[in-house]
Design brief:
By secondary structure, the protein is of the alpha/beta class. Helices cover about 35% and strands about 20% of the residues. The strands form two sheets. A seven-stranded mixed sheet has the order 12-11-7-10-9-8-13, covered by helices on one side.
């Protein structure tokens, strides 16, 4: 893989995941103020409502509206989401710097992964714990850069799809069917020219797959057609996981896990609440629940899928990953 050698990957994951001491941060109990960057996604509205109507003690108090500058679907959402946030009593500020003066934690919700590094840097420098909504970046190189900056500024950060915390996925992770021997998932898979193909939306399915299969994918191959994809990953121990990407007809985000003791459903998506609970716990503890290594392996998987598409569906090897 051209963008990530084995040495580079191991160095990046080591930097992102080792030597960060967040337990020593003293955070006053009354400091539970959350800020949002990016009001061009419905997540900003939904997350704000779930947090501010809950009894966690956290509250979204301010938001910076700027998100994508050129993705039409995001631009179309911005005005409506901004007004909804204003109606909740959340203050709109005119810069990230102004936001950081008012909050203790940040949700980076910009729909477009390309500006995430630029928007994350002042948050990381200010040492405000940061959740970055999916996709963490538009490319593997972008994801690497964010984790390197998080290590440089000793600031906790993580990214995740809500599907990682789906109740059915959680049951499988907790051992309901024993060891997972394989899994098949399906997901909407709209494409966006500035992002890895699977990163724009199919990342929901990819995250669900990796959550139940765990790390260790060795090769990826992809069959691509205009209306659908079938991406097959083979893990180092011979297990197989697939992602069916759907661009035409009925769709959902769900799947099936195959285990030693049974077969179990995954999904479909039902609620953002488990993700919100995880984010707030992360803000409280400063301990990222999803490691840099996990997220980078997911991006390496998606990059390999793009390479396979360009090479007529041939298998593409992933780098050897840090376990």
């Amino acid at each position: 893989m051209k963008e990530l050698s084995r040495r580079t990957f191991l160095k990046t994951t080591a930097l992102a995941g080792v030597g960060l001491s967040f337990d020593s941060w003293a955070v006053a109990p009354e400091n539970r103020r959350i800020g949002i960057i990016g009001l061009d996604t419905s997540h900003s509205q939904v997350f704000s409502k779930l947090i501010n109507t809950g009894n966690s003690g956290f509250k979204v108090v301010a938001a910076y509206a700027q998100g994508s500058k050129d993705i039409s679907s995001a631009l179309q959402l911005k005005a409506g989401v901004t007004q909804a946030v204003i109606d909740m009593g959340i203050e709109i500020v005119d810069s990230i710097e102004a936001l950081l003066r008012k909050v203790d934690y940040v949700l980076l919700e910009t729909n477009d992964g390309r500006p995430h590094l630029e928007q994350a840097l002042p948050v990381l420098k200010a040492r405000k714990p940061l959740f970055i909504d999916k996709p963490i970046a538009a490319s593997l190189a972008g994801a690497e850069a964010i984790f390197k900056a998080a290590h440089q500024y000793q600031t906790p950060v993580f990214s995740s799809s809500a599907l990682r915390y789906d109740p059915n996925v959680e049951k499988v992770v907790q051992g309901s069917i024993g060891k997972v021997l394989g899994a098949d998932v399906y997901t909407p898979a709209e494409l966006e020219k500035n992002h890895l193909d699977l990163a724009w939306y199919a990342i929901h399915g990819v995250e669900m797959l990796f959550t139940v299969m765990g790390p260790g994918c060795q090769t990826v191959s992809r069959s691509y057609e205009k209306d659908s994809d079938l991406v097959t990953g083979i893990w180092a121990d011979g297990r197989i996981g697939t992602v069916r990407g759907i661009r035409s007809g009925a769709t959902s985000i769900a799947g099936t896990a195959f285990g030693e003791k049974g077969i179990a459903p995954l999904g479909p998506f039902s609620t953002y609440q488990p993700l919100i609970d995880t984010i707030l716990n992360f803000f409280e503890t400063h301990q990222p629940p999803v490691s840099a290594a996990q997220t980078l392996e997911i991006f390496a998987f998606m990059q390999a899928a793009d390479e396979s598409r360009k090479n007529g569906g041939k298998r593409v090897a992933l780098p050897a990953f840090s376990r």
